[in-house]
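ok here's Fibrinogen C-terminal domain-containing protein:
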Amino acid sequence: CTEMQCLRPLHPCVCVFCEMLADGGWTVFQWRFGNLQKDHWLGLSKVFAITKGGGTAFAEYSDFRLGTEEESYKLNVGAYRGIAGNGEFQQHKNGFGFSTTDKDIDGCSPCIFGDIAENTCSFSEGGWWYSRCGSASLNGDWHPAGEHIGWASGLHWATWKGPAPYSARASRMMIKAVWKKIITAN
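and the structure:
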């Protein structure tokens, strides 16, 4: 399947062609010239606007499992591969449940920032598998540069760009089934 998408980072919004067959989700910015449905060149200024935020990264885990509801959907991940940095998942997040604003279970209650004591989800702006106040949150809000409310606010993955206040423009977590063929002998 292929489809047209509207790019929100561009003002005004621009429709682009997305390739959904080759691993899915690719924004096509060059496919000859002319017809946006088939042959087109998105243009250098638009490609610059899409990519100026600087870089992409990925973290892939050989295993991803959640515990039961009674275990607060405890996170367990396998071996790390990628360029985003491990986000301290294996070391600090494995075994922690999912914290929300009304259920703070990160092992740091409350987190202390100077003279302020807060639930991790309050300043990180979203539920996550926090551990002792968190080093990553892909459920936070996006903040323009300079508009962060704390060191951990926004959409962040500390091992990628460090703990300084920043917000990634987007994140995506995906899972897919790994099918195993079972061969039985008669």
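+1. The helical segments are 44-51, 89-93, 120-124, 158-161.
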